[in-house]
Amino acid sequence: MMSESAIAARLEKSVCSVVRGQTEVVRKVLAAMLAGGHVLLEDYPGTGKTTLAKALARSISGAEFKRVQFTPDLLPSDILGVSVFDPRGQEFRFHPGPVFTDILLADEINRASPRTQSALLESMGERQATIDGDCHPLDGLFFVIATQNPVEFRGTYPLPEAQMDRFMIQCALGYVSAAEEAEILEAQTERHPVDMLEPVVTRDEVLALMAAARRVRFSAELRDYVVALVAATRGRREIQLAASPRASLALMKISQALALLDGAEFVTPDLIQRVAVEVIAHRLVLEPEARFAGADPRKIVRDIIAQTPVPV
Amino acid sequence: MNPRPPPRLLLGAALLYWGAATGRPVVGLILAMVVEAAHWTRLRWDFDDAAHIRAWQISAVTAGLALVMLWIDDAPLMAAPRLLGWFPALLLPLQFVQSYGLRHDMSIRVFSFFTRKQRASKHGYVPDPARGKFNFGHVYLVAVLVAATPIWKMPDFPLQVPCLAVLAAWALIGSRRCRWHHVAALAVLALGIGWVGQFGLDRAYQWVNSGWYRNRGLNQHPSHFRTMIGKLGEIKQSGDIVWRLRTGAGSPVPTHLRLFAYNRYRGGFWSNLQTQDDRIPTAPRLSNEYRLTLTDDFGPVEYVENANASRYYKLRRPPAEAPMPDGPVFSIRGRVENESPVPLPGSAAELHGFDVYSFEANPVGTVVIFPKAPVVEGEVRWNAGGSRESPPWEETDLWIDDNERPALAKVLTDLRLAEKSDLRSKLAIVKRFFDGFEYSLYNTIQAPRVGDPKDNTAITKFLTTTRRGHCEYFATAACLLLREAGIPTRYAVGYTVAERDARRGEWVIRGKHAHAWTRVWDSQSGTWLDFDPTPSAWMDLEAGSGGLFQPISDFFRRTSEDFNLWRAKPGNTAIVAASLLGLGGLGLVFIMRRLWRSKRIVNGRRRTKENDPRANLTPLRRLESLAEKRLGPRGDGEPFARWLHGLTPLLGDPAPLDEALEIHQRLRFDPVPPPHADTGRLAELTKLLERHIKNAPRR
């Protein structure tokens, strides 16, 4: 376990050397990756979303990184791949799309049509892509970082609820402090530090980390607590669509991964509370009245955390 | 909003105090036991919002019924404050639900029908369900303290305000972190404020009791009466029914019913004195002490118990040796308080069948009642010879203030009253004289300016210039005029009997029938006669104004009085008590039955084994109460470790706390704890931390 923590620490340090001042978010993104989930970054342009994804990919030797810029005319085949008739071999040959990779950056995912967005559904949920009836399994390390811009409405398609549920966490990088921004400028005076990034872990080591995260101990009492937190979203008046059991599952897995990153062998309630907002809030659909009254899902989840009795 | 219950025993203490302060110690003790027993028993119910609403409804309905009963019992004005005094009992259902429920809070929505409706409808959005939760104990505490402070009567309990202050301080301190020197300072402050408050309350009580409340709405007293003479403005009087009269078939009905009589007039102010006395104030304003001592001239009315079963209060005087004529009889019914004057004709002789402790009367004929029930009814025999009024006293019943004399003398000369020898003819002349005056409820005569001896008195202006006024002017002017002519007079205040309710066969006396007239001494027959100088047109002026709501008000007045009388009859008291007890008992049995069925015994041992997280207590939990004093209470959702981390600034070395927390977390949340995480070490660390926290300086 100690060696795995050391590996995780190496990876985290490498990413943080490029993505400055975002330790907490980086850790949560890493935890999501180690827990086998996907991340939705909702943030303003230029806050380092792509840098984060790139740094992550570069830090892992042998990890492939692809990026898809989502646009309104993007088609499902542009993501999944397409079978093209090869006149020489008189057969259809499959050209895999960008989804067949280790780390996929889906930039501005809400600009593509819902149909295209949904093309990612199967890949994200089941780690496989079915094209023309053929099932193509995706690699063990398949990690999607999707981004969306929170302020633009024109020409965007809000993600379908099912798609939202597929993301393990939704978080925001946010702006960094002035001092950190100055550091970023300094680091990038000559060239972007992400280009100089050397791999610090192998792809197999990351897969081992993912296995180790699943071995982090999780007590029965905390399982009840996770269930209680998620169940508290159901039956609230302001919530139209509450969190699913997939949310409980995600909360358990990511807190295990977070414990691993913290170097702990078991999960404590603190860890669960640390990620609960990111795991649960984006899955909630509020009643229109609540939305217009200014209710915020993140605030609702924070309230739920404050009200649900925590094991002591 | 505070979801934490008030400190233990505070509610019990407050209830005991309420019992002591309001003279209901047994009720207070029972309530205190019910509320505090929740801490000692394991009996609990899983009360949800619906149960809270039910409890609120029970409280509200009980309060409504109590209000109706109090209203029937007493004047409506006093029903609300008296209801306030019963708040602890009325709100008990809600406090019971809170104390014995498994939940520690209550939603504010429970109390609002509309919010509940809104919540039930699809579109009703309630922004934050967590908002508006509170522990009812605090509300109950405030209600108990308020109920224990009766503002309408003298506090019997000597330590009223200090006790109140101590309880309030206890509640305030109990909800904060505990610091002893602050407590001491607060207690001193509370006691100081308490004594000052007590003193203020006493003074306020004296002030209220001496003037405003005692003569509520009447501004009159057996010893003095402030008239409207010399004051500007319109006189308005209530149309409410005050008394009701019935007579036997063919019996006459008295025209004037007197409440008070007075014999000394000065500057718009009638008072009642037996002898010429310098105690009469020159300014028409009496000190409170003086007002209270002037009632000394009242004496009990003689109670006659004859062998032939006729028992009555005798107003004839002197005691008749010879058989008296049987005068006519009428019955009278009305709402009274202690020492209320009874409206009686001047020639009232006997009072039959009143349910009273006693009657008292003064020499000028005012009779006050000491009733057993708020509504009384009885029969009055009158016109049967004799009267309780004393014969005239030369020095007071002929006394005229010097500044009134010139005008009186002039009028008297014009009337040539001295030419007549017969009293009746003299009265007829005076009556005729006043018939030329105009009756008006709108006062235009102003009292003489202070310090201006040339300015005429109000009566002088009335007699010589304006010749316009209301009954008080007529009665006062006639009194003085006759005195100037050498005839002893007294001034009488009361009601005229003018409104006949033919449908019910009774005479109705309303507030607007209040009147003033003159009692004149007839030296020939040795009796006092009623002489009303006011032009008889005055009743027409009063009769018109009824008001839209008068019939409704009359109905309630009649119903409430009649019910009161019905209830006071011996047989009916039992019926009322039995039916109330029966209904209440049935309701109570029903509630108890349902409660008994749904009860839950919170069993300490069983809970420990199954689902109580305390089953897995680690020694670190012992720090909880100590930490609570420094950090404040831990929220439901606040992890223990994070909460205890707040102690770090207090401790010089954070290492023991970190180690203790690590062991605690391992013991609690690691399903496979390694062997080295032992409880013994944690216990050691906990002791060390306890010492550190106790010794740490307070911020």
Question: What is the CATH H-level superfamily of the largest domain in chain A?
Answer: P-loop containing nucleotide triphosphate hydrolases
Q: Kindly report the CATH topology of the largest domain in chain A.
A: Rossmann fold
End-to-end Cα distance of chain B, whole Å, is 26 Å
How many β-strand runs of chain A?
13
Q: Which term fits the overall shape of chain B?
A: elongated
Total beta strands of chain B: 28
Strand percentage of chain B: 15-25%
CATH architecture field of the largest domain in chain A? 3-Layer(aba) Sandwich
Give the neighbour order of strands across the main sheet of chain A.
3-6-9-1-10
Mean pLDDT of chain A: 88
Largest interface: pair, residues per side:
A-B, 31 and 26 residues
Question: Which key terms come to mind for this protein?
Answer:
heterodimer; A: 312 residues; Rossmann fold; 2 domains; 5-stranded parallel beta sheet; two-stranded parallel sheet; 14 helices; 17% strand; globular; B: 699 residues; alpha+beta; 4 domains; 8-stranded antiparallel beta sheet; 24 helices
Topology:
The complex is a heterodimer of chains A (312) and B (699).
Chain A: H1 2-18, H2 23-34, E1 39-42, H3 49-59, E2 60-61, E3 65-69, H4 76-80, E4 81-86, E5 91-96, E6 103-107, H5 114-126, E7 128-131, E8 134-137, E9 143-148, H6 161-166, E10 169-171, H7 178-187, H8 193-196, E11 201-202, H9 203-215, H10 220-231, E12 239-241, H11 245-262, H12 269-280, E13 285-286, H13 288-292, H14 297-307
Parallel strand pairs in A: 1-9, 1-10, 2-11, 3-6, 6-9
Antiparallel strand pairs in A: 4-5, 7-8, 12-13
Helix pairs in contact in A: 1-3, 1-9, 2-11, 9-11, 10-11, 10-12, 11-12, 12-14
Chain B: H1 10-22, H2 25-37, E1 43-44, H3 49-73, H4 76-84, H5 87-90, H6 92-100, E2 106-107, H7 113-120, E3 133-134, H8 136-147, H9 160-174, H10 180-212, E4 220-221, E5 224-226, E6 233-234, E7 241-247, E8 256-262, E9 264-266, E10 269-271, H11 288-293, E11 299-300, E12 302-305, E13 311-314, E14 329-335, E15 340-341, E16 348-352, E17 356-361, E18 367-371, E19 375-382, H12 394-397, H13 405-415, H14 423-435, E20 438-439, E21 442-443, H15 458-466, E22 468-469, H16 471-484, E23 489-496, E24 499-501, E25 506-510, E26 514-522, E27 527-531, H17 538-543, H18 550-568, H19 570-598, E28 600-601, H20 604-609, H21 623-631, H22 640-645, H23 655-669, H24 679-695
Parallel strand pairs in B: 20-22
Antiparallel strand pairs in B: 1-28, 2-3, 4-5, 5-10, 6-21, 7-14, 7-25, 8-23, 9-10, 11-17, 12-13, 13-16, 14-19, 15-18, 16-19, 17-18, 23-26, 24-25, 26-27
Helix pairs in contact in B: 1-2, 1-8, 1-9, 2-6, 3-4, 3-6, 9-10, 13-16, 23-24
